[in-house]
Specification:
Length: about 650
Amino acid sequence: MSDSDARARTLRLDFLLTALTLAGTVAGFVAEARGSTPGIWLCFGTAFLAGGVPAARTALVELVADRKLDVDLLMVVAALGAASVGEAGDGAILLFLFSLSNALQDWAFTRTRDAIHALMELSPEGATVEAADGSHTFRSLEEIRPGDVVLVRPGERFPADGAVLSGYTSVDESALTGESTPVEKEPRSAVFSGTLNGQGVVRARVERPASESTLAQLVRLVEKAQAEKSPTEQFAARLEGPYSMVVLASAPLVFAVLYFLFQFTPGDAWYRAMTFLVVASPCAVVISTPAAVLSAMAAGARAGTLFKSGAALEALAATRIVALDKTGTLTRGEMRLVEVRAFDMPEGEARALAAGLERHSEHPIARAVASAWSGPAPEVADVQGVRGKGVRGQLDGATVWAGTRRMAEEAGALVTAEHDTLLTAWERRGVTTLLLGCERQVLAALAVADTERPEAAEAVRLLRARGLRVVMLSGDRADVARHIAADLGIEEVMAPLLPEEKLTAIEALRREGRVLMVGDGVNDAPAMAGADVGMAMGTGSDVSLESADVVLMKDDLRRIAGAWDLARSAAATIRFNLSFALGIIVVVGVLALAGKVPLPLGVVAHEGGTLFVVAVGLRLLLHRVGRGADAADAAADTPSEGGEAKADAKVAAAA
């Protein structure tokens, strides 16, 4: 039996017992109205057995196995106490509402867990594998190996991470990234395990086994996240046992005080003690934090923002400084041809010649130049790479070349002042330059650079709109880092930094506030581990993913602001829930001691408060974790100038 089937079966049993408890309670009051004593005992007895035995069993297991008092024990004792003073009906009502509350809580948390565990259902059972002779066979997921070529038809899911070899299609990646728009795929495009193929038939080469795919990593991280508790959850869990013991011990104390000091009758004193026992139990306090944390984590996972633990969620809400890696995070992490200046030929011909010359090389700069031209390119023969300088080849009996100034000098070409001025100006912007020539003539200058992500500037604006301090950390040259930072609106730059220096920089920033470090590479792992919260891009290295506390499955930096908004909403919800739950205990507890709250009303207040904090926590399931809120929402969430209080007020108002 699967976990989901087991949970469904448990839920059905919970609601069946709740219904039986209700039926016994209603029938008991009917029998009481008719004066049928056997009927009263039979009906209320049924209610006590259906509603009390499961709770008593749970409480005894906790007591014997973990030596811990459970709140279930308080409810059973209170119900028996009510029956002992002739108020079996009140005890039955208590057990019914307590049973209903537990069933609804289980249902709510099952929905939350199912929203996360739905990820685990994305992997197909297997795929069609193409053999070397062109034949096709179906293999199970465990039999598919890196290097295998799989055929994925419309409506099928990709079995593993890989790259498209042939075919064009659109792929629904929303389950992994939260991106609702299908992503177009063509040869060389990356595809991920569990994503849904659209209309086209594609052949893809498997690059990683299914057990190491992006989906498998995501599932493992989710399972780990569910097992770890946030600091507030840990505190509430530690509080439950001692608090329950104090409340249980307070019942005879309240009875003694009321009976001996205030001269109450034994029945009245015991009734008030049992009422106090009910309203003082910490159900709402214990459940308030998990309800919010699990709901927020489910909302994040559904949108492609994975929190590895509740602690990461709470820590992110407290961050005030965002440190961003440059290469691969703020930038694309791959070289692109950004500018061409032709001197003695049309620009199109210069681009074509450069592409024809560079397409024979696997160097990142060569790939950038070659991929920037999609038209026909001349066939350059005898292409040779010159280490550290560039490439040269033969075209129609003439030597053509592309490379550095030294390459031009070796070719005997004249690099004029105009050429040098242009190259120097480009290099100050942080780009890599090269010259294109034929024999002794310089034909064009080209600029290649790692360009900013298109959403990076907006992401920085969203973060700053929330009052967050944004800092760039880079291992690149200081002038390059400062140029990109200026384009993106980042005022603080720390560069150049080695990996260990990034960690030192993070430690310095932590002395000024809580720090979120966002990166994607192996060299970012120490800094992410050293920050209060580490956040990795979903396509980053395995080391950075393991070091991170939060993973953005979609490479969209604007989701950093969305994740922060979710964390803040969760933190505000937790504070509201705890304040409400403790307030109910204090106010209704005092009124119960004063005799102003009868046992049925105390039961309603207790169980109603528990269900209310669960409902407020589940509201986070509706939170949209996207690309950040608009300017108005950002201003409301800004921590400076009272923004934190505004954010909390919004949560309380919505609740």
